[in-house]
Amino acid sequence: MIAIIDYGVGNLYSISHSLSYLGLENAVTRDEETILNADKLILPGVGAFGDARRKLSETGMDRLVIQKAESGTPLLGICLGMQLLFQKSYEYGEHPGLGLLPGEICPLKPDIPENLKVPNIGWNGLRFMGECPLLKYILEGDSVYYVHSFYAKGAGDAVKAVSEYSVDVPGLVQRGNVYGAQFHPEKSGPVGLNILRAFGEVTGAC
Description:
Elements lengths: L1 E4 L6 H10 L4 E4 L2 H6 L2 E4 L5 H11 L1 H10 L4 E4 L1 H4 L4 E2 L5 E2 L7 E4 L12 E6 L1 E2 L14 E6 L1 E4 L5 E7 L1 E9 L2 E4 L7 H13 L5
Parallel strand pairs: 1-2, 1-3, 3-4, 4-14, 5-7
Antiparallel strand pairs: 5-6, 7-11, 8-10, 9-12, 12-13, 13-14
């Protein structure tokens, strides 16, 4: 069973609907026992990093996510949920992340030409940077849907696919059993569904 963590921030039910469409058992939950017994976790997120990090802490979900990830349970962070997996963010201040992935979350605006809009909203193709189980059912160049103003920097070989927005935006990251998608697979049509299908097949740490 895939537990979609409900900590008060996120696009929960569209993710749940996508998983159910694929025949993957899932539950939107904030119940500790359900999360601890889950085979896989999804950490969603929409909004500001600092607010989401505070809510994770207040609900105790930060502790559970770290505990499960460190035990080898596959974890997928989506959009802001992916950003929370990193060491820190510079979104309206400086905020600590969960520290499960190397690197920092930084604003796009200073790194791109003035003619490009922030937030970056829309479809963009993926360029593969390394092997990753979540890429098994898609092709290089397939497009996914982004909505973001900040992006990961310093992630090194954890970056498995990027999309170009004047700079290379890490779209898909992985270190062991910890995965992250900056884009929204639940809004990315058949390509996104295939990424979620691949996540449904992963088992433990790689």
